[in-house]
Each structure stands twice: as C-alpha cells, then as structure tokens.
From TrEMBL, chains A, B:
InterPro entries: Nudix_hydrolase, NUDIX_hydrolase-like_dom_sf, NUDIX_hydrolase_CS, NUDIX_hydrolase_dom. PROSITE patterns: NUDIX, NUDIX_BOX. CDD domains: NUDIX_NadM_like. Keywords: Hydrolase. Gene3D superfamilies: Nucleoside Triphosphate Pyrophosphohydrolase. It comes from Neosynechococcus sphagnicola sy1. GO terms for molecular function: hydrolase activity. This is NUDIX hydrolase.
Amino acid sequence: MPHSYRNPIPTVDILIELLDRPHRPIVLIERLHPPHGWAIPGGFVDYGESVAAAACREAQEETGLGVELIDLLAVYSDPSRDSRQHTISTVFIAAAAGDPQAGDDAKALGIFESWQLPSQLCFDHDQILRDYWRYRHYGLRPRLS
Amino acid sequence: MPHSYRNPIPTVDILIELLDRPHRPIVLIERLHPPHGWAIPGGFVDYGESVAAAACREAQEETGLGVELIDLLAVYSDPSRDSRQHTISTVFIAAAAGDPQAGDDAKALGIFESWQLPSQLCFDHDQILRDYWRYRHYGLRPRLS
C-alpha cells in the first residue's frame, strides 16, 4: 500500500539516570541550535531503526554514555509540542555510569537533581520532566491524553 | 530545521477490551486488503493528530465503538514488523462496551478470549498479543529491545 501523505516525525528522548552519583541525577543538554535552551537528550528515529536502537544511539552521540534502557515513560505526540513540525516522541528511562560529555550539537551538558532543574526547557520537556519525577517518586504514570 | 529524509511511519493499534462480556474479551479484525489475516484494530497517525486521538478515531472507524484509553502497552518498531514499510506502532489498551461492527476495511470482525485467538495474524500482532496477555494476566510489561 503506497503511503504518500505527510506523517508526523518519530523521535526519541532519553532520561538518563547516572547510577554512580548521589540521588541518581539525570543528564540534560543545552542546545547549540534553535530553539535554544535545555533539553532531554534525543533525536530523530532513522528509517530502518527501532526506537530502542535510536535511543541508545542518540544517548551515545549526545552524552558519550553507553546506556541501558530501563523503562518506557510514555509517548508524547501533541501536535504543538514542537513548533517546527509535528513530532511523536517515545520517551525512555535509561541507566548509565561515568562522566557524560557533550556532543557536537550541544553548547553545554548538565547533571541535575529534581529540585534544581534549569528554567529554560525546550519543547514540552518541562512536562516530560514533571511526568518523569512524578513517576520516579510516586510510581504514577503519565495520563494518556 | 527542515527535515527531508525518509522517516518511519507512525501508527497506532488498540487492544479493545469489551467490559460488558464474560472474560473481558478483545476485538480483532479480519483484513479486507492485503496482507490478509487477522489484526488488532489500528492505522496511521495523521499529521496534526496525537497518538491518543488517532487510537480513538481508528477504534471508532474499524469497530464502531467509542473507546476509553486505559494504558499504554508498548511501542513496536522493529523495521521488519511490516514488510511493506517501516512503521512504529504505539499500542494502547482500551475499554469499550456494546456491539462492535466491522468497518469498511474489514472482511469480518471477531471477539476473542486469550485461549481462542485466530491462527493467521498479520504483521507482528502475534507478538503484541502474547505481550498483551502476559501483561494482563501477570502484570509483566514487554521487554524494551
């Protein structure tokens, strides 16, 4: 069946927990390219690549860390979540250890606990991070709508 | 940021549980178009549509049922899951009541308990159904790889 109409673009984002540090903090990236601000590591899923493979690849490229995927947080697909185009992000929780290093697409890389997140977060990543900490602290998964 | 390369195609599938019947059975569709066989109701996510909205729309179109999304089972994205093209399916569990009616794209519609599924299942829907029943009966979520 040919498929010619425009589709939403599949992406992944990865909440990388650093197991070898107190409070198991997470890694965020300060974007080099617009939109500027902080973001959860992630990117586009290549054709022929599973979302799990894309998540491990993007984590490696953007933080230098080899990660193990632990859980699926949710799928974020609100058409307004990225003003540039409609993306559908599968958001994973992953574990890693060691020192993350910013990749080429990052201005900076930061390690954050839940009580000290950066204020300027891109896309819907403030919502994703709220959902993530709620799930991590209280076991409540995000709503489906 | 323009985005011109080929992407995997986002889809949804919906495991619709009929609450008002003994054993809470699920609805499957016998496909009218190739590949022939039985399948979980679902389809493509439109540009500008959330995965949750797509799931409710496809469930309505293919079974006539208004559904409530209950849970996210998993995301299936193995490049070989559909031989025609690379699709990424967000698979929901949903609840409904009443009598399902086959839509235009279906040859037939069936209501199934876990011990009497049809043998000819399309795509990776045999795997999805195994994962679903394992999760429903034992609370174990599918593996992420």
